[in-house]
Amino acid sequence: MANQIHCEKHPTFSTIALLGRPRGDNTLQMHKNLFQWLLERGYEVLVEQAVGELLDIPKSHLASLDEIGCKAQLGIVIGGDGNMLGRARTLAKYHVSLIGINRGNLGFLTDIDPKNAYAQLAKVLEKGEYFEEERFLLDIFIERNGQTEYVGCAINEVVIHPEKIAHMMDFHVYINDKFSFSQRSDGLIISTPTGSTAYCLSAGGPIMTPDLNAIALVPMYPHTLSSRPLVIDGDSKISIRFADYTRTPLEVGCDSQMSVTLTANDVLHVQKSACRLRLLHLNGYNYYNVLSTKLGWFKNKN
Question: In the predicted model, what is the mean pLDDT of residues 28-51?
Fold first, then answer.
């Protein structure tokens, strides 16, 4: 039996959830170790069900994402940004704070170093040495046959494109119900500041700092040389209508993790969600240092 470790817990968190599964990690050793580490410190610990079953965690500690949302105050996501995105879209509506241990590639959202994870988590849980940052999400609605249906939400971006590769689409963009522009392209990216360093960046869009109240509209391979990314107020409502002669099935995707099929008769509406991603960072976190490291913006030493 492990020795009980007595420490002063930060009063904000009493129930903590372990979430995510790094790609290619068959041992899940960090999950095992962190589960025990938190129990020894007196926390109630929940483990995402699919991962907990692989580890033979007692059923009393297993929970679905919705159950975690109702019971936990903090979620520790082990993995890359994709793991964070998948869990955060559900947990944002429950106001659960999240912190990430980076076991992926980039780690814009999961910034705890796995080599120093326990020391850094101790600073958060025992000393309260952290700050919370809120990131907004986008809600997606489809207007079809006079009825408007909620599709889902996106933390990074909403992408509209033809289902078939190398097909173009004609569409019209309205901002706050006012016509803005028409375009013929392979698709359109509607990005939050969080997503500006994801697909948006790859498509030539602007990098937006997380504190901006802004949305970027970035065309994908537009059929004109004059097309440029457009940044608008974050409280804007964006509506997309498609050309009547469109025959190719269309698709709208959220964070490259979920998608829904559209027809030319549908109208797509995108706007800021009332939900927020509550992301914890250690004191001393610097977004510009993250950009410099991840994107290779190294200082000239000459």
Answer: 95
